[in-house]
Specification:
Length: 309
């Protein structure tokens, strides 16, 4: 049995399912909102994983995780305990299955997705990265800022999302650091991540599935709202997005990076600078692809459906 692990509202999974149905491919879609029946047996003669009474042959782990937890409404702390127990099992099963069957995507890599690790692996693969500092020291921060004309700050791992009384605070994405921000900082503060700001000719979003890259150029620089970060979307005046061909040497370095990260699918963000350099920013192991596929006429969903043949 072929399996897709995803979420019920994922448009990409819907489109891949349409292709699979048209090809009469046997497939089972497991949405993470619904608990699944699983068993995992370990013995000296080998391991067996059974999900919904079937042994999977190929798995595309698109979104979320394989759910096994039945919530207990009255005891919220018990729900959290059950989730942690389930997560530890699902991660172990994923690690094992990747050595025995075709398994694309990852819950484990999504949960253990660290920007600093990405930058180190990208650098070791020969990709250019922005000079970066993570610090809790105002002295070190000022020394870093003085080296560059502009610097930006962004989330280290998780988007900001918390409430104080009646106010809710959310991330602003990538922001320029100005003097007003510096004035309000104490000598020691909670960790922040800052990078040199690199002037862009355009931005790049590159989806990859196994060893195939699908690159798209995003012309974000003509719009002040998206100039620093195209994810500050302007719905009234969307950025122009077109397919682009990467130099072979950049393709090779990106594929080397994905191998070092042990990723076989995801979305990579890069910059093409005004100095004609390709600069790596980050990778999202469960990246969006619907927008990229449609903008570039890549028909990625069709290619993913071929994975199950």
């Amino acid at each position: 049995m072929n399996i897709i692990i995803t979420e019920s509202n994922d448009i990409t999974s819907d489109l891949v399912m349409e292709w699979l149905i048209s090809k009469k491919t046997k497939i089972r879609r497991l949405n993470n909102e619904v608990p699944n029946s699983i068993s995992y047996a370990i013995s000296n003669s080998g391991n067996i994983f059974v999900v919904e009474n079937s042994i999977p042959e190929k798995i595309w782990h698109r979104r979320g995780k394989l759910s096994t937890t039945i919530p207990i409404n009255r005891e919220h702390s018990l729900n959290e305990y059950l989730k942690k127990e389930s997560d530890s099992v699902i991660k172990s099963i994923e690690l094992d299955l990747k050595h025995s069957i075709k398994y694309v995507g990852s819950f484990l890599k999504e949960t253990e997705n660290y920007k600093l690790t990405q930058l180190n692996f990208a650098k070791s693969s020969g990709l250019k990265i922005p000079n970066t500092l993570v610090t809790s020291s105002k002295k070190q921060l000022l020394e870093f800022i003085n080296k560059y004309e502009k610097v930006v700050s962004k989330d280290i791992r998780y988007p900001v999302n918390f409430s104080v009384k009646d106010e809710t605070f959310n991330s602003s994405g990538t922001i320029l650091i100005d003097n007003q921000v510096l004035k309000n900082l104490n000598n020691i503060f909670n960790l922040i991540l800052i990078q040199e700001y690199i002037e862009k000719e355009h931005e790049l979003r590159i989806f990859f599935f196994e060893e195939k890259l699908y690159p798209m150029a995003i012309f974000s620089q003509s719009n002040e709202k998206t100039k620093i970060d195209f994810r500050n979307y302007d719905l009234e005046l969307p950025n122009r997005c077109v397919p682009v061909k990467l130099p072979k040497i950049i393709e090779q370095k990106l594929l080397d990076f994905t191998k070092k990260m042990e990723l076989n699918t995801g979305s990579i963000d890069m910059i093409y600078s005004i100095d004609k350099e390709y600069v790596f920013l980050e990778v999202n192991p469960q990246g969006q692809l619907d927008w990229l596929s449609k903008s570039c006429n890549y028909y990625i969903e069709r290619d993913i459906s071929d994975f199950f043949h």
